[in-house]
Design brief:
InterPro entries: Kinase-like_dom_sf (IPR011009), P-loop_NTPase (IPR027417). This is Thymidylate kinase. It comes from Chryseobacterium salviniae. The chain is an alpha+beta fold and 768 residues long. The chain folds into four domains: 2-166, no CATH class; 180-362, Aminoglycoside 3'-phosphotransferase, Chain: A, domain 2, CATH 3.90.1200; 368-553, Beta Polymerase, domain 2, CATH 3.30.460; 559-766, Rossmann fold (3-Layer(aba) Sandwich). Helix content is 44%, strand content 19%. It contains 28 helices and 28 strands. 33% of the residues are buried.
C-alpha cells in the first residue's frame, strides 16, 4: 500500500509523524485475507463498485446491497476500517481527502493497482514490468484511436508510474454475452493491421516456444505441458498464419456498451502479433471460465454459434485460429504464472479449462481415453490422493483392461465426479456409491471405457484394515506427476486384500510384497488379520457387516443379454469373447446360461436320467424331433414356459439384482422362430403370445451369416433351412424392435469377429 501511494504523491505512515495528517481507510479483503478494495472512509458513495463486474444476478444483488448500506450511512459499521497518517511527497496526482477507491489488482509481475476518483481511473504500476505495460498501453491507445465502430478513453501518463484514463462507463453497461456490437468492434480492431506469414517467421510465437523450455514450475499440471509440447511438435512450421492487431484482453470487464457503440479500455496487452480472431476467442473463453464457470464443451459451442456474428470462419479455419489462440495465450500466461509467487483460485480454473481445450488438437497423438486419463490427473494435481498399484509410466499408457484405483476423501471424490460429468470427452458417466468407495464408469465420445475406483476407506467386510488418510499422507509424485502410494503401503494393501479374501498373493505381486514387507511387520499383519476375522464373528459386527454387504452387493443392477441364430452363426465364440470384454473392460461379473433359466431339467431327464439325457442332447443333431402332436407339443411348451416364468425371477434376484450381466446362449426366441428345435409344433401365435409375460432382456442380438459361411462352419442344417431360419429370426427381431423402446433387438451379420464384438460393446456402453 505504501508503494502505491508513493507513486501517486503521498507517503503513508502507521503512526503519527511530525507534519503528518490523519486519514481513515475502509476496506474489503480477498478470501485469502489480502486487501482487495479500500477507500476513504469519508466517501459517501461505494466507488469501489467501479471495479466490480455486476453482470450476473448474484453480483447485482451484492452491488445493490452495498449501495443500500451507503445510502443508509452504515458503511463505517459494516466494513473494516484502519487509521493511517500521510504526508505530501512531490506533486500528488489526486486529492487523498476527497472520495476515491482503490483496487489492489491481481498479484504477479504485471501487478497494477487501480484508483478511481473525480471521473478518472488511474493505473498505478507496482513493478518495473508493470511500468513498461503502462507505456505500451499509451502507445496502443494512440494506434487504436477511436473509430466509428468503437471508442477509446483519453489517456495521460503521469511520472512514468501512473496512467490516467477517463471514465467511459458513464451511462454505459457491461454485457457478458458476445453480441453484434462486440463483433463489429473486434472486426474494427482487426482491420487496423493484418498480415500473413509462415509460422517459422512468426517471431512472437517462436519466442513463446523458447519460453516454455525455461518453465519448471511444479504447480503447473504436468500433462498440460506434455500436451503443449506434443501439439507444438506436430505443428508445421511452414504453415501460414494470419496475424492482426488485437486488444489482447478483450473481455466484458474491459468494455462498456453505450447506445450503439462500445467503449474499450485497458489496452496494455494490445499487439500486432496475435493470431486473427484472438479477441473474439478471448472474450468468450475468459467470460465462460471466470464469470459463467462453464465447462469447455459449452464454451466451444458458444464459439461456434457466435462465429456467425464475427468472422464467419468455416470449421477448418475456426479450429485453425482457435488452436493458435490457445497456444499463444496459454504459453504467454504460463510464463507469467511461473513467475508469480502466490496463485489465486482463478488460475486453477483457467489451467483446468485450457488443458481440456487442448484435447481438440491433441487427438492426433492420443486417444480420447488417454486424454481423459491425463485430464483426470491434472485435475487432481493440487489435491491430496494416492493412486494404488499404478504403473510408473505415462499415466495414459494404462492398459485398456485396467482400471484406476485412487484413495481420496469423500469430498474430493465428489468433486472429481463433477469434473468428469463436465468433461467434453465423457459421453456418459455412471456412478455407483458403496459404503467405502465410488465406482465410476466413463464412456468416452469414441466409445472407449475407463473405470475408476475412488476409495474412501480401506476395509474388508465393514472392518477398516488400513488408514486411508495415512496412505495419502505418505504418497509421493512419480516422475509423471501421479501421486502414488508408497511401496510399503502398496505391499501391505496387497497382502491384506488377498489374504483376507482367502487367496494367495498373485505371482506378479509376490516378489514385490516380500521385498517391501519386513519379516517383523509380516508377523504383526498376520496377527491383525486373525483379529479382523474374529471380529466378523461377533454378533453386532456380524449384523452390521451383513447389512453393509447386502447394501454394497445390490448397489448396482445388472442386465440380461441374449444371443440367437442358427447353429454355425458363431454364437459360442462371440459369447466367450464378449464375456471376457465385459469382465475386463466393463468391469462387471458375467453369468452365462444356455437357452433357459434351467430351473427345470430337460424333459428327457425324467425318463433317461440326467447323464444319459444330456449325452443324447450333445450327440444328436438339432431339429430332428418328429413330434407333430398338438397336445404333446403344448405340454412340452408349457413345461419349458414354466421354467421361463418362474426361473426369470430367480435369475433376476440371484444375478441381475447383484450386478451381474447374464448372457443367454439362445433364449425364448427359439420357441417363436424355431420351435421345431425343441420338438414343438405349435402355431407361432401361441409361442409369441407367451413372450408378453416375460421380463424383456435389455439386449438381444441375432447373429447371422450367409448360408455358405454357416455351412462351412457347421453342416448340421440344410441350405434351405439356414435361409428360412435366418429370414424368420430377422422378421421376428424386426417386429419386436418396433414395440419396445427400452429393449434393443439387433441383427448383426457375423462375418468379422472384431466388427461383431465392437457393435455389441458399443450397444452396451451407449445404452442409457
Amino acid at each position: 500500500m505504501k508503494t502505491l501511494f508513493n507513486n501517486t504523491g503521498y507517503k503513508l505512515y502507521t503512526t503519527e509523524q511530525p507534519g503528518s495528517l490523519k486519514i481513515s481507510f475502509s476496506y474489503i479483503r480477498n478470501s485469502d485475507g489480502s486487501l482487495r478494495w479500500f477507500w476513504n472512509s469519508k466517501s459517501k458513495k461505494p466507488l469501489f463498485l467501479k471495479f466490480y463486474n455486476a453482470s450476473s444476478f448474484k453480483a447485482r444483488l451484492y452491488a445493490m446491497a452495498v449501495k443500500i448500506v451507503f445510502e443508509l450511512g452504515l458503511q463505517n459499521l459494516i466494513f473494516e476500517k484502519e487509521t493511517l497518517y500521510y504526508k505530501l511527497e512531490g506533486k500528488p496526482v489526486f486529492n487523498i481527502r476527497t472520495s476515491w477507491a482503490m483496487f489492489t489488482g491481481t498479484p504477479g509481475p504485471n501487478n497494477k493497482a487501480l484508483l478511481y476518483t473525480a471521473g478518472s481511473f488511474y493505473k498505478i504500476a507496482c513493478t518495473e514490468t508493470a511500468k513498461d505495460l503502462l507505456i505500451n498501453e499509451l502507445a496502443n491507445i494512440r494506434f487504436a484511436s477511436s473509430s466509428r465502430l468503437y471508442s477509446v478513453p483519453k489517456t495521460i501518463l503521469h511520472n512514468g508510474n501512473v496512467l490516467q484514463t477517463e471514465d467511459i462507463s458513464k451511462n454505459g453497461q457491461r454485457r457478458n454475452s458476445f453480441g453484434r456490437i462486440h463483433a463489429q468492434t473486434v472486426k474494427g480492431i482487426t482491420n487496423k493491421y493484418q498480415r500473413r506469414c509462415q509460422i517459422e517467421d512468426w517471431g512472437y510465437f517462436q519466442m513463446l516456444k523458447k519460453n516454455l523450455e525455461t518453465i519448471h514450475d511444479e504447480r503447473i499440471p504436468p500433462n498440460l505441458i506434455r500436451k503443449l509440447n506434443t501439439i507444438l511438435g506436430k505443428t508445421n512450421e511452414t504453415e501460414s498464419i494470419n496475424l492482426s492487431f488485437s486488444h489482447g484482453d478483450f473481455t466484458p470487464w474491459n468494455c462498456f456498451v453505450y447506445y450503439n457503440s462500445l467503449s474499450v479500455y485497458d489496452w496494455e496487452l494490445a499487439s500486432c502479433e496475435k493470431p486473427k480472431g484472438f479477441d473474439f476467442f478471448h472474450f468468450i473463453i475468459q467470460n465462460g471460465i471466470l464469470v459463467d464457470k462453464k465447462p469447455w464443451k459449452s464454451i466451444l459451442n458458444e464459439i461456434k454459434q457466435k462465429n456467425r456474428l464475427a468472422f464467419h470462419f468455416n470449421e477448418e479455419e475456426l479450429y485453425h485460429h482457435l488452436k493458435f489462440y490457445l497456444l499463444t495465450n496459454i504459453l504467454a500466461y504460463l510464463k507469467i504464472y511461473a513467475e508469480q509467487k502466490e496463485w489465486h483460485l482463478q488460475i486453477h480454473w483457467l489451467l483446468q479449462t485450457w488443458t481440456e481445450a487442448l484435447n481438440d488438437f491433441a487427438k492426433k497423438s492420443y486417444t480420447e481415453r488417454e486424454l481423459l486419463i491425463m485430464d483426470i490427473f491434472d485435475s487432481l494435481h493440487t489435491i491430496p490422493y494416492a493412486a494404488l498399484k499404478f504403473h510408473n509410466r505415462e499415466p495414459e499408457k494404462l492398459s485398456l483392461d485396467s482400471d484406476i484405483d485412487i484413495i481420496m476423501s469423500s469430498q474430493n471424490a465428489e468433486n472429481l465426479v463433477r469434473f468428469l460429468k463436465r468433461n467434453s470427452l465423457a459421453e456418459r458417466v455412471a456412478v455407483t456409491k458403496t459404503s467405502f468407495m465410488y465406482r465410476v464408469r466413463i464412456i468416452t465420445k469414441d466409445k472407449q471405457i475407463l473405470n475408476l475406483d475412488l476409495i474412501l476407506k480401506i476395509q474388508w467386510k465393514g472392518l477398516e484394515f488400513m488408514k486411508a488418510n495415512k496412505i495419502i499422507k505418505r504418497s509421493f509424485p512419480n516422475e509423471f506427476g501421479v501421486k502414488t502410494a508408497c511401496n510399503g503401503d502398496t505391499a501391505k494393501y496387497l497382502h491384506y486384500f488377498y489374504t483376507l479374501n482367502g487367496s494367495e498373493v498373485p505371482e506378479r505381486y509376490r516378489a514385490f510384497t516380500e521385498k517391501n514387507i519386513p519379516e517383523h511387520k509380516l508377523v504383526k499383519i498376520s496377527e491383525h488379520i486373525s483379529q479382523l476375522k474374529m471380529r466378523t464373528k461377533q454378533r453386532l459386527s456380524f449384523l452390521k457387516n451383513t447389512f453393509i454387504y447386502i447394501s454394497d452387493t445390490f448397489s448396482e443392477k445388472g442386465f440380461v443379454m441374449t444371443f440367437s441364430g442358427v447353429d454355425g452363426a458363431g454364437k459360442s465364440t462371440v459369447i466367450s469373447e464378449i464375456s471376457n470384454l465385459i469382465e475386463k473392460r466393463y468391469r462387471r461379473p458375467v453369468k452365462i446360461l444356455r437357452h433357459r433359466p434351467s430351473l427345470l431339467p430337460i424333459l428327457s431327464v425324467w425318463v433317461k436320467g440326467k447323464d444319459k439325457a444330456h449325452l443324447d442332447v450333445v450327440s444328436s443333431l438339432p431339429r430332428q424331433g418328429s413330434n407333430n402332436n398338438i397336445l404333446s407339443s403344448f405340454a412340452r411348451f408349457c413345461y419349458y414356459y414354466t421354467d421361463y416364468i418362474i426361473g426369470q425371477f430367480i435369475i433376476y434376484l440371484k444375478y441381475v439384482m447383484r450386478g451381474k450381466i447374464v448372457l443367454y446362449d439362445r433364449y425364448y426366441f427359439d420357441f417363436m422362430a424355431d420351435a421345431r428345435r425343441s420338438n414343438i409344433n405349435l402355431p407361432k401365435s401361441v409361442t409369441e403370445s407367451g413372450y408378453f409375460f416375460l421380463m424383456k432382456p435389455k439386449f438381444n442380438f441375432f447373429l447371422y451369416a450367409s448360408p455358405e459361411k454357416i455351412l462351412s462352419r457347421k453342416k448340421e442344417l440344410s441350405y434351405q433351412s439356414v435361409c428360412d431360419l435366418n429370414a424368420e429370426y430377422n422378421r421376428l427381431f424386426s417386429k419386436l424392435g418396433k414395440h419396445n423402446d427400452n429393449t434393443q433387438y439387433i441383427a448383426i451379420e457375423n462375418n468379422d469377429l472384431n466388427d461383431t464384438l465392437n457393435t455389441i460393446m458399443n450397444s452396451i456402453i451407449t445404452a442409457k
